[in-house]
């Protein structure tokens, strides 16, 4: 179809799912989006797994590059940055620094905060209360947020060159501290960075695509309903009898 945009994103309203949407909104690129419904296990459909062998979201397909598929949210951000020449500094050293902080998010902040959330928000309501795991991942998440706080001392964004894909990758996870119930008391540099990114119109738009989930950021009235919905959509992950997929 001639009028389709070049970029097609498969995603859902989760921390990893928001990252490429933030980039696309920031860059003002035309794209279309398929919402993946975990309740229907669309992420495990054979056709989808041909694009993303890991069976998870997000996935980007570049129609202008022969339907080239990119999985892993950090790689999607990197691909978009290289494709557009935006939000990633030039030069070997600056790129190395960007990659270091992107790896730190992908291998540290994301998985640790993800596990803290999983044990509190999915395992526990599905009958697997694991206080030791909750303590371990909550403590490690706090330690990692302290690393970010130190990095942000005297910096507006995570890289010296300014707002980048590293901020886009890290923000959705770190900003969800209320949902993960990780204490951020005293992390003033981090709080100022949250304010800076909260204030970006493209980010605010992105957080409503494909679906607004304000309970991640500011637990309040909507939390109870969302918590139940969230526990239900990942319920199969919490069942011990579930075979590895
Ligand atoms: N490292 C991957 C993680 C992707 C991931 O865990 N996605 C979750 C949502 S945040 C997902 O698709 N969960 C559904 C499932 O596990 O079946 C990335 O950053 O893209």
Explain the overall architecture.
- With 245 residues, the protein is of the alpha+beta class.
- The protein folds into two domains: 7-84, 3-Layer(aba) Sandwich (Glutaredoxin), CATH 3.40.30.10; 92-200 and 213-237, Up-down Bundle (Glutathione S-transferase Yfyf (Class Pi), Chain A, domain 2), CATH 1.20.1050.10.
- It is built from ten helices and four strands.
- The protein has a four-stranded mixed sheet, with helices on one face.
- Helix 4 (92-123) packs parallel to helix 6 and helix 5 (131-151) crosses helix 8.
- The longest helix is centred in the middle third of the chain and has 32 residues, at 92-123.
- The chain is globular, with a radius of gyration of 18 Å.
- The protein starts with 6 loop residues before the first strand and ends in a 12-residue tail after the last helix.
- The mean pLDDT is 93.
- Bound molecules: glutathione.
- Residues 14-17, 38, 43, 55-58, 72-73 line the site of glutathione (GSH).
């Amino acid at each position: 179809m001639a009028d389709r945009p070049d970029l097609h994103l498969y995603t859902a309203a989760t921390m990893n799912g928001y990252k490429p949407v933030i980039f696309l909104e920031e860059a003002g690129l035309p794209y279309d989006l398929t919402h993946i419904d975990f309740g229907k296990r669309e992420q495990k459909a054979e056709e989808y797994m041909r694009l993303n062998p890991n069976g998870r979201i997000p996935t980007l397909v570049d129609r202008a590059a022969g339907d080239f598929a990119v999985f892993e949210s950090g790689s999607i951000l990197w691909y978009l940055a290289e494709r557009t020449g935006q939000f990633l500094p030039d030069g070997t050293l600056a790129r190395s620094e960007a990659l270091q902080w992107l790896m730190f998010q992908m291998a540290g902040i994301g998985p640790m905060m993800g596990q803290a959330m999983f044990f509190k928000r999915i395992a526990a309501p599905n009958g697997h209360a694991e206080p030791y795991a909750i303590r371990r991942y909550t403590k490690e998440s706090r330690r990692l947020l302290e690393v970010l706080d130190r990095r942000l001392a005297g910096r507006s964004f995570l890289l010296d060159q300014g707002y980048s894909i590293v901020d886009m990758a890290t923000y959705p996870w770190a900003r969800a501290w209320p949902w993960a119930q990780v204490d951020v008391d005293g992390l003033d540099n981090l709080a100022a960075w949250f304010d800076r990114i909260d204030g970006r119109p493209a980010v605010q738009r992105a957080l409503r695509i494909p679906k607004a989930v304000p309970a991640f950021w500011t637990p309040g009235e909507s939390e109870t309903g969302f918590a139940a919905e969230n526990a239900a959509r990942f319920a199969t992950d919490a069942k011990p009898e579930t075979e590895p997929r």
